[in-house]
Specification:
153 residues, 8 helices, 80% helix, elongated, DUF1641 domain-containing protein
Length: 153
């Protein structure tokens, strides 16, 4: 009859294993450690570490102050307005907004150069389809704002 082979596993020394991993860590993660040291130096130079240390030391006081500020009616309205503005901006096609923002510096530069156009020249510009389209959009916007202002009464 065959005899069973007796296997005795070596006892695992977790401390030794941890020490070995710790000894190899600087070699395996040298780039990350150098980057971390650079970040730490930048935080120290900009005094951000001092600010964080102070905020951690103050802990509950800072949190209480922030909560007190954010529960004021003005803060609540501001937060709601920011959310509404974000929703409004998200409804605008990014390409359209990009084209408009790219044209603004050119329009400002043209208006700064030379003498301002005469009233007749401005009226001539308003006759173009593009100007009328922009004026119509502006008039519609003003009409909507007026309607909303009247609604509050």
């Amino acid at each position: 009859m065959a005899k069973p082979i007796e296997i005795k596993p070596q006892p695992r020394n977790a401390r030794e294993e941890l020490q070995r991993r710790l000894d190899n860590a600087p070699v395996e993660h040298a780039d990350a450690m150098l980057s971390l040291y650079e970040l730490l130096q930048q935080l120290y130079d900009s005094r951000t570490l001092d600010l964080l240390r102070g905020a951690l030391g103050a802990g509950d006081e800072v949190l209480n102050h922030v909560v007190r500020l954010t529960t004021q009616p003005e803060s609540v309205r501001s937060i709601r307005n920011l959310l509404i503005m974000a929703k409004l901006l998200s409804s605008i096609d990014p390409e359209t907004l990009h084209r408009i923002s790219a044209m603004l510096p050119q329009a400002v530069e043209q208006s700064e150069n030379g003498d301002p156009p005469s009233l007749w020249a401005l009226l001539g510009r308003f006759r173009s389809k593009d100007s009328r389209r922009a004026l119509a959009a502006g008039a519609t916007l003003l009409e909507s704002v007026g309607r909303e202002l009247n609604w509050k009464k």
